[in-house]
Design goal:
- The protein has one domain.
- It is about 70% helix and about 5% strand.
Length: about 475
C-alpha cells in the first residue's frame, strides 16, 4: 500500500468506525457519547482535509448540498451566537426564562443559549460526516463497505436486543443498571425502543438489498445465506421490539423493496433463471415466513396486535397536536434556535392549561416535522426540505435512470438506501428519529449517497478505477 493510498484511506476507515460507534454507544443519546462523536467528526475532518492537501485533490462534492449545508450552519450558529436568554426548570413542564445580553438585541437569536450552542456542535459534526459521505460514496468499493457496515451494525443491535429481551431484567442489567433494567421499553443500547426500531429499519432495508443482489449473482450461495441470516436476525429484532413503528416499517419496507426487485426480475431475468436454484430460494423464503410467524405468534402476540390496532388512538391521546399547531403558526422565519423546542413549548402548554398532563413528552415533540419547524423556523425548514427532498429525488432518478441490472449490488442498494430514508421520514411523523445522533448519522449517510456524483455513464460491472492513483 502506497503512502498516498494510506493517507486517503485513513479517514474512510475512521468513518466506518464511526458508523459502528454511534449506535452501540447508547445510540449517542447522552451528552458524553454525543461529545465523543463530535470529537471523532473533528478528527475525521482534519484527516480528510490533510489527506486532500497531501494528494492535491479536491473532494468530489456536489455544489447544491454544500450550499444548503453552509446556509443551515450559518443560520444555526448565528442564532446560537445571538441567543437572547437561558432557561431553568421550575418543574419538568414549566420554565423560568432568564434574559441575557445578546450582541444584537434587536436581531433574531435562540431562546436558550446553552441548548443552541451544544446542539450546533452536534449539527456541525453531522454535516461534516454528511459532506465526507458525499465524497466517499462516489467510490463503489467504499460505497458497498458503508452500506455493509450500517447493515451489520443494525444486525448487532437486533441480536443484542433480542438476547437481552429473552434474558429478562437480570440480563439487561449488563447494559442498564438499576431500575432501567426493569423497563420493557429499552432495546439493546437504546433507552427508547422506538429509536432502536428506526436504526434497525435502516439495516433491514439494506440487508434486504444485499440479499436481493446475491440472488442474482451466480455461485454466491454463501453470500446469499449470510445475508438471509442477517435479514432473519433483523426481522426477529424488529418484532421482538415493542415498538409498533418497527413492525409497521418492517412490513412496509419489505413490500417496497420486494415489489421493486420482483418486478425488475420478472421483466429482465426470469428467462435465464435456474429453477433448480429457485427451490433453494423458495426454501429460504419459507424460512423467513416461518420465523416471522413464530415471532408474531409468541405468547404475547395478542398484546402486540392490540397495541398495533390502538396506535392511532394512542398518538391522539398523548401528543397535544393543537398546541403544536399554535406554536408552529407563531414560529418566525428563523425559529427559536437548534434544540430549543423543549423551551419554546412549555409556555404554550401553560396557556392552554395542560401543564399537569403529558408531562413525559416535553423534550421532543414525537413529531420531527413540528420540532424542526420550531427549532429552525420556516426558512430553515425550507432548507432542510430541499436538502432531503432533493437528495431523494436525485437518488431515485439515478436508480430508475439506469437499466435494470439484476445482481448488481450498486444498482440494488441505491434504491434500498432511498427506501430506508423514506422509512425514517415516515417514522418521524410520530416519533423523533431525526433527533437521535446515531440515526441521524445513518440517515445523512444514505442521503449523501443519493446526492453523490456517481459515474452514471459507466457500466457498474466494469472494474473500479483507482481514484487515488496518480494521473
Amino acid at each position: 500500500m502506497t503512502l498516498d493510498r494510506a493517507i486517503a484511506d485513513a479517514p474512510r476507515w475512521m468513518f466506518l468506525c464511526i458508523l459502528v460507534y454511534a449506535p452501540l454507544a447508547y445510540g449517542c443519546t447522552g451528552v458524553i457519547e454525543i461529545s465523543i462523536l463530535n470529537q471523532f467528526s473533528a478528527a475525521l475532518l482534519l484527516m480528510w482535509m490533510g489527506g486532500c492537501a497531501w494528494r492535491r485533490r479536491w473532494p468530489q462534492l456536489p455544489w447544491c448540498p454544500v450550499v444548503l449545508v453552509m446556509l443551515l450552519l450559518l443560520q444555526g450558529w448565528w442564532m446560537a451566537w445571538n441567543a437572547h436568554s437561558v432557561h431553568q426548570y421550575r418543574t419538568w413542564t414549566t420554565v423560568d426564562r432568564i434574559w441575557d445580553n445578546p450582541p444584537l438585541p434587536g436581531w433574531p437569536g435562540a431562546i436558550d443559549r446553552n441548548l443552541a450552542r451544544f446542539s450546533m456542535l452536534s449539527v456541525t459534526a453531522h454535516f461534516v460526516l454528511f459532506l465526507f459521505a458525499c465524497d466517499l460514496m462516489t467510490r463503489p468499493v467504499w460505497r458497498k463497505r458503508a452500506w455493509g457496515t450500517m447493515a451489520l451494525t443494525a444486525v448487532l443491535v437486533a441480536v443484542g436486543g433480542t438476547v437481552l429481551k429473552a434474558g429478562g431484567p437480570g440480563m439487561r442489567e449488563w447494559v442498564w443498571g438499576g431500575e432501567l433494567a426493569k423497563l420493557t421499553t429499552t432495546f439493546a443500547p437504546y433507552r427508547y425502543h422506538g429509536n432502536a426500531a428506526s436504526l434497525m429499519s435502516i439495516g433491514w432495508a439494506l440487508a434486504l438489498g444485499f440479499a436481493a443482489s446475491a440472488v442474482g449473482q451466480e455461485r454466491r450461495t454463501l453470500r446469499l445465506t449470510a445475508w438471509v441470516m442477517a435479514v432473519l436476525a433483523l426481522l426477529i429484532g424488529l418484532f421482538t421490539n415493542t415498538s409498533r413503528a418497527g413492525w409497521g416499517l418492517a412490513v412496509l419496507l419489505a413490500g417496497v423493496v420486494g415489489g421493486r426487485f420482483l418486478r425488475a426480475w420478472w421483466r429482465t431475468a426470469r428467462d435465464h433463471f435456474d429453477w433448480r436454484r429457485g427451490l433453494i430460494y423458495a426454501g429460504l423464503l419459507a424460512l423467513v415466513a416461518a420465523a416471522l410467524m413464530v415471532v408474531t405468534m409468541s405468547s404475547d402476540w395478542q398484546e402486540k396486535a392490540k397495541r398495533f390496532r390502538t396506535a392511532a388512538e394512542t398518538i391522539q391521546e398523548r401528543y397535544p397536536s393543537g398546541v403544536y399547531h399554535q406554536l408552529a403558526a407563531e414560529t418566525s422565519l428563523l425559529g427559536h434556535g437548534a434544540d430549543c423546542f423543549q423551551m419554546a413549548l412549555p409556555p404554550y402548554m401553560e396557556m392552554n392549561g395542560l401543564t399537569g398532563t403529558f408531562d413525559r413528552f416535553w423534550r421532543h415533540a414525537h413529531n420531527d416535522y413540528y420540532e424542526y419547524l420550531v427549532n429552525w423556523g420556516w426558512g430553515g425548514a425550507a432548507l432542510w426540505a430541499v436538502l432531503i427532498g432533493g437528495g431523494i429525488a436525485r437518488g431515485l432518478r439515478h436508480h430508475f435512470g439506469r437499466p435494470a441490472m439484476w445482481g448488481s449490488t450498486q444498482w440494488t442498494l441505491s434504491f434500498c438506501g432511498v427506501a430506508a430514508v423514506l422509512g425514517i421520514l415516515l417514522h418521524a411523523f410520530w416519533d423523533f428519529p431525526l433527533e437521535v445522533a446515531s440515526i441521524t448519522v445513518f440517515f445523512l449517510t444514505l442521503l449523501a449517497d443519493a446526492w453523490a456524483d456517481h459515474e452514471d455513464r459507466k457500466e457498474l460491472t466494469q472494474p473500479e478505477p483507482d481514484p487515488d492513483s496518480p494521473g
